[in-house]
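Structure representation.

___
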Amino acid sequence: CLVNPRACHETEHLRISTPSGQHDTGVARTGLSLNHGQGLRVAVVGGGPAGLSAALEHARMGAEVTLFERQANLGGQFLLAQRIPGKEEFKETIRHFETQLAHAGVKVLLNTPATTARLAEFDKVVLASGVTPRPLNIPGADRPEVVSYVDVLQGNVIPGKRVAVVGAGGIGFDVSDFLTHDADEAGFMKSWGVDESLQNRGGLAAAHRQGSQREVTMFQRRPGKMGTALGKTTGWIHRLTLRQRGVQQVSGVDYVKVDDQGLHVRLQDGSMHIHAVDHVVVCAGQLSHKPDGLEHPNMVVVGGAKDARGLDAQRAIREGLESSYSAVHNAETADRASSMVAITS
């Protein structure tokens, strides 16, 4: 369902291809066909999950598509996600889209920011410019030891032994996993007590997970248990893993400041606590990123650029697909308007 947003929604969308004479392509259900985008020039701004999906689906509708990506590589948030232990398969997701875009004839422009002047030559623009990290707005947030999760995952900053992670959403859990992965140096199977030799009953053995050499403490403003919004089938794994690695969790705090003593927080009971740290990694959510001054009269916004709250790749890719339908409707509206002008003139 991640790379194929049609999965479990087959009755709502066009089929990509159908052998001759077998079934319908969805025209009767949607009122569209796979050639409705022919003659339409579409620019997609951003090569993250939403942009990759939008570019591919517009091309499948017959449009002439150009994808603008300001970075040197496609992938967007996938490029960060693939660095998390256990999520390396996102490299294959990127490869899948790169291959499909090439097959579909999409023109990909890397290291190329989009401009209003350049977009003027297109009939339609899909803005999929993604998200930026939400900053920590407290005194001392500009100190060198206060860093973004992006810098940590990209390897621009190597956090020290004592780390405070600000924010306990999906990003906070992923970064805490990344920072403490040395605890699983014995390997996945031994860390979870799986006996690959099958010498023990049920294939189970004593787990060999140890505490991390880093002292990581997670903080969140919201009171209560951390990780309640994580996936129902995997959330318990993340919580258990970090607990076994010795990660501490403190909920219901107010962030006060960062200074030479460390991170100052106000606890739920009103008392002040100073957490000595080498680094503060900010994982306090994301904000929609929309390039300043970028305009086009026929623009659709998708993915994180549309709404960064609760963003996930599945939603972004689905919105990319759906944007191709709106492009077709807009093209048909323009055609009808042109026809009316021709009739009345």
In short: The chain has two domains: 10-132+287-344, 135-284. The first helix runs from residue 27 to 30. The chain has a mean pLDDT of 86.
